[in-house]
Amino acid sequence: MSPTTPFSTLARAMARGTRPSDLLPELHRELLAALGAARSVVLESSPVSNDYIASSGRGFDGVGTAWVRDSEAQELSRIAAAGPAVVTLSTLPSLEARLESRRALIIPVKLAKRPTILVVARPEVPESEALEVGTRAEVEFGIVLEWARLAREGSFHHRMRELSLVFARGVTSAASLAPALEIVAHEANTLLGTRRISVWLHDRRARELLFTASSDPQPEKTPRLPAESGEAAARGLRFDRPQLVGHGVDRLLVAPLRVWRRALGTLIVEGGAPGVDDEHLLDVAHDLARQLAAGIENVQLLDEIVRQRRLLEDTFNSLTDLLLVTDRNLTVVQVNDALVERLNRPRTEIVGSTLSSVVGDSVAAWAVEPEPDHGAAASRTFENPGLNGTFSVTMSPLVNEEEETVGRVLVAKDITAQTRLTADREALRARLTQSEKLAALGQFVAGIAHEMNNPLQGIMGHLELLIDHSEAAAPVRNELRRIFREAARASRIVRNLLVFTGSRRMTRRRLRIDRVISRALASRRVALDRAGIAIVREFSEAVPTVAGDPLLLQQAFLNLLINAEHAIKSRGESGRIELATTATDDNVVVTVRDTGTGIAADVLPRIFDPFFTTKEVGQGTGLGLAITYGIVQEHGGTIAVENAPGGGALFRITFPVRAEVM
C-alpha cells in the first residue's frame, strides 16, 4: 500500500472478483509493508457490550476474543474519535500487552456499521507518512469490512431462508410442529452463535404460553406462562416487532410470532450474535419470526380444518337417521355410516351411484321434483323394500356460498316401528270399539235369550210328554218329534247366544280345525251346490289342534260360508270358495276366500259391526259376522278381512295353539 497508489490492492481484488474474506489478509499485509510494521488488528465493538473484539489481523493469535474491555474500551473510542494518530499505549495496558508494543497507529475505520478501529503496532515510517497511510486505510478497510458484512449478511439471509423452507417442508401437522421448531431453534442458534433460542406458542383457549421448542436440550423450569404475565415471552405477544430486552449478559431478543391481527407466540434469542450488529440481528429475528409464524399459522389452520372436518364427519356418522347427499345430477357424493350399515354395501360402491340405485325409484322421482320454495325442505313417507322399512324422508336443497342449488340432502328416518305401533293402536282401537258394540249387543241378546229360554223349555217339556205318554198324539208323533228337534235346536241357539254374550262359560277341548270346517260345509252343502258354488279345500296335515268349543266354532265358520255364498250369488253367476289352513310357530291360520263382488272401501271398517248389513231388508240381520267376530275373540283369536287380489273378499282367522282347555 504505497502512498502513490491508493486503493490499488482493493481495485485489483474487486476486478478479479476476490472474496472480501480473502481480501482482508492482503490489506493487512500491504498495510504492514507500507508502515514497516509487524502487527495489525481490526477491533470491532461487541453488539452486547462496549468491549472491542479482534475480528481480523496479522502477526498474532487470538482473533474472535475481546482485547479491550470496560474503561480501556472507552479510552480507545475516545482516542479513535480524533482520527488517525500515532499514540503511546500507556493508558491501554491490555492492548499494549497484546501488541507487545508501547507505540501504535490508531485508525478509526469509516463506513463500518459498528464502531471499528484499526490498530498497527510500532510503525517505522515517519509520523506524517504513517498518518497519510492511515487516512487511506480507514476508507479501504471500511469498504472491505462493509463489503464483507454485506456478503456475510447476504449469505446469512440465504441460510435463514433455507432454514425457513426446511421448516415449512418438515411440518405437516400439529404433531410434527414441535420437532420441526426444535430443528429450527438448533440450526438458527448455531448459525447466529447465540447462547440459546427458544419458541413459545400461545394457547388461546387456555390463555397460556407453552414452551414448545429450544436449541438447549435442558427442559424449561417453567414450561407454562400466563399470557398476561410480565415475563419476556408473554410480553412479546404484545410487541409489533422484535425488541431487545434487558442489558449485558441478561439481554434477550424477543420477537413476536405475529400474523394478521394476532400473535401465535414468541421467539426468544438469548445472548449476543458475534459479528452481527443489533440492527441486523433484529432484522434477522423479524424475518425468521415472520416465516415461522406463517408456517405455524398454516399448520394450525390445517389442523383446525382437519379437526372441524373430523368433527363434522363424526357428527354426520353419529346420527342414527340415514343421511345421503347428491350433486345436481342426483349422483350420490356422501353417505353416513347408518346408511352404509343399512344397505350392507361398501361405501365406495354407494358413493358415485345414482340415487335411484341406492334408495329406489320412488324417492329418486320425488327428488327430481322442483322445490316449492328456494331453500325449503319437503317431507314424504315411503315404503322402501331396498331399505327394508317405512321411512319419513326429508329432502333439502344443497346450497353453496353463491346460494345456488348444487344438489340434494336427504334424511331418512326409520318409522317402521312407529308405523306398526300406529297400525296396532288403530287395530286395538277398532277391536275395543267392536268389543263395546258386542258388549251392548250381548246385553241385548242376553235379555232376549233369557226370555226365550223359559218358554222353549216349557214347549220342549210338553212335547216330550205328548210323544212319550199320549196315545192321542200317536198319529202325529213323527211331526211332534220334528217339532221337538227344531225346538231343541232353538234352545241350543239360545244357549250359544248366552255363551256369545258371556252368560255362561264355554266347554273347550282340543280339536282339529279342519274337521270343524268340514262339518260347517256339510251343513251348507245342499245350498252351495244349488247355487253352483265350488269348494276348494287346502288343509295342511301339519296343523296342530287348538282348544275350542266345536259348536261355536262351527257356527262361526258357517256364518262365513253363508256370507261368501251371498256375495257370490249377488254376481248372478257361479263362483268358488277357497278354504285353507296353515300353521305358524304359535298360531293356526284359516283363510276363507270367495270370488264374489268384494267389499267396498267404506264398508270394510264396519263389516263386523252388530246389525250392520248391506243386504236388502229381510235378507239379513247384520248379526252373522258380528257373532263370528265375538266367537273368535272368545277363543283368543283374531279375525281380519280385506279385498283379495283378483276380486272377492279374503277373511283371515288365527287361533292360538297353546290356548288352555277349560
Structure description:
With about 650 residues, this protein is an alpha+beta fold. It folds into five domains: about 10-155, GAF domain (Beta-Lactamase, 2-Layer Sandwich), CATH 3.30.450.40; about 170-310, GAF domain (Beta-Lactamase); about 320-415, Beta-Lactamase, CATH 3.30.450; about 415-505, Helix Hairpins (Orthogonal Bundle), CATH 1.10.287; about 505-660, 2-Layer Sandwich (Heat Shock Protein 90), CATH 3.30.565. Helices cover about 45% and strands about 25% of the residues. The chain is built from 17 helices and 24 strands. The strands form five sheets. The protein has a six-stranded antiparallel sheet, with helices on both faces. A six-stranded antiparallel sheet has the order 9-8-7-12-11-10. A hairpin with a 7-residue loop joins strand 2 and strand 3. Helix 13 (about 415-470) runs antiparallel to helix 14 and helix 15 packs parallel to helix 16 (about 550-570). The longest helix has about 55 residues, at about 415-470. It is rod-shaped. The termini are far apart. Mean pLDDT is about 85; it is low at about 1-5.
Kindly summarize this structure in a few lines.
The protein is an alpha+beta fold and 662 residues long. The strands form five sheets. It has a six-stranded antiparallel β-sheet, with helices on both faces.
Write the topology of this structure:
Layout: H1 8-16, H2 20-35, E1 39-45, E2 52-58, E3 66-68, H3 70-80, E4 85-88, H4 93-99, E5 103-108, E6 116-121, H5 127-170, H6 177-192, E7 196-203, E8 208-214, E9 224-226, H7 232-235, E10 243-245, E11 252-259, E12 262-270, H8 278-318, E13 322-327, E14 332-335, H9 337-343, H10 347-350, H11 355-359, H12 361-368, E15 378-384, E16 389-399, E17 405-414, H13 416-469, H14 477-500, E18 509-511, H15 513-530, E19 533-539, E20 546-548, H16 550-569, E21 575-583, E22 587-594, H17 624-634, E23 638-643, E24 649-656
Parallel strand pairs: 19-21
Antiparallel strand pairs: 1-2, 1-6, 2-3, 4-5, 5-6, 7-8, 7-12, 8-9, 10-11, 11-12, 13-14, 13-17, 15-16, 16-17, 18-20, 21-22, 22-24, 23-24
